[in-house]
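worker-03 picked up job from queue 'complexes'. Input manifest follows; two sequence lines, order preserved.
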Amino acid sequence: MSAFLADAWMALRRKPLSLAGLGLLSFFALVAASAPVLAPPPPQARDAYLIPQDGYSPDPLRPSARHWFGTTEQQYDLYYGIVWGSRTAFDIGVKVVFVSLAVGVLVGGLAGFYGGWVDELLMRLTDVVMALPSIILAVVIVTVRGPGLENVVLALAAVSWPSYARLVRGDVLTVKEREFVLAARALGAGDMRILFGHVIPNSIYPVLVVASLNTGAVVLSAAALSFLGLGAPVGYADWGQLISMSRNWILGASGSPLAYWHTVVIPGTAIFLFVLGWNLLGDAFRDILDPRQK
Amino acid sequence: MTRFILKRLAMLPLVLAGVTMLLFGLFQTLSPEMRASLYIKDPRQLAALESVISSYGLRDPFHKQYVRWLGRVARGDLGYSETAKMPVTQAVRAFFPATVELSVLSFVPIMLLGIWLGTLSAVHKDRFIDQLSRFISITGYSLPSFALGLTLLMVFYGMFQLFPPGRISLSSDLVVNGGGFASYTGLILLDSLLNGEPRVFVDALAHLVLPAATLTYVTMALLVRVTRSSMLEELGKDYVRTARAKGLPESAVVNGHARRNAWIPVITIASILFVQLLGGVLITETVFAYPGIGRWVAQAALQLDVPAVMGVALLTSTLFVLGNLAADILYSVVDPRIRYR
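worker-03 finished. Artifact:
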């Protein structure tokens, strides 16, 4: 573990771009943590994630002193939406990574540890889920369960666990042959104790890193589902949903074709920088995890 | 070789059975009442909900319903899509050619540009061109395709009236649907040429530029990265040094020796790219109001149009499974060692 962290730090130092990624993510974490200060919700708000509306006029307003990033249609304040949307992004990312990791580690761990028919059954199930294009499967799940952020999280977790299961299974296969596992068995430890106390803790780091670096991709897919109208409801602080509100305004006003540029570009930039942060960070770790590049 | 292919083909029905069971199972999680409502066209029929449930056997055990459904699918009966206002099989026939056109027009530049950029950046590792191609690929897989697409529309269509959304303009539509225009393939690019209508061809092409560019940019990144790293690996090998030592020109070393062996991971990636393209099509078609299966299924998902979503899921997963099979076979043709494992 400590060797792994040392490797990670070395890789980061050699790659200034990856440090920049870390910087971007720290910035977003800071924004998310201080959202109530940066964009205080109106006193009577029942849910801070609902973007306050300044009137109900249909046309978006350009950025101004009153609305730093301008407003969308129906006068949702973009600045507020972007600030609180950073919380939504972390929230979705963390939940999807956590759930898919838990399922992937459990399935891959059991399959690798027990082998035989358990392995066969679980891995064939994994193959079937992987045989479906992930966005289509996600759309199917959201169709069946109805739109909403929880269902988006569920759908994205359902499509991401199989690759983690494969990764964990491979590592468990080698770890379970090591001496300390034999020692634990000689001391009389049961299967569950050996699997969860010895084998999984020793094979989890690679998948932990791969999964957490996937956060960027997860947030991008969640934003896409929200854009399609399958995710967050209108007015909820979610970047993908903010962009979907701009669709009617891309043609601008007469004589001023870029009049409503901010409705696309500002939330688009937020998503881009957030995902870029994860991907830049991921670049450094990919080199550590890829034995061929050593 | 034949044995390898036969073995892989034998796996096909098993995988497809698993996929259909999973999809059908997901829709079975809807209550019988909700599934019955798919057969009800008139609110007055609601009183007879129970009889609908029993006449369609919606409370039967899973395996019975699954087999019955599979039989219907085999006969080509996928139900009626409320979103498209036509049977699903007919809607697939109507929307699929548009998607094929868009996918092909994106897949070709993805492959060409991706492999070219990946090779270039491996050959000039750490030089300017390498940095540029890394920048292009990392921004590509971080950009939300819908924001990129909308911005392109705003600039090129909004400002310059170039590259409109949709599939064809009104004037071309009058030609295509005005009689006298024979639909041979459903692919407008091809049909317009066969009918001798170059203006329709140019018009359809203009509509494809922005969606294809968006898809290419966001999908190409992975291929650039994989080509680069597998080229780097090959370029470091002994046979490359030998080739250089015996005085071969660099272009022959790169194109004739290294790139051939670097193909193997690239083929694997191509099937992943295909999936990404399918996902990308869903969003890109919606952004550009392009009437393909992606936009259709995105609309259907919002309206609980289960037959449509199910039909598209079946179609794309079958295509995906077949694509993987093709990649496997191609893989074993390129690298004979794989057959003997």
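worker-03 released lock.
The domain at 2-34+66-293 of chain A is CATH 1.10.3720.10 (MetI-like fold).
Chain A touches chain B through 54 residues (CB under 8 Å).
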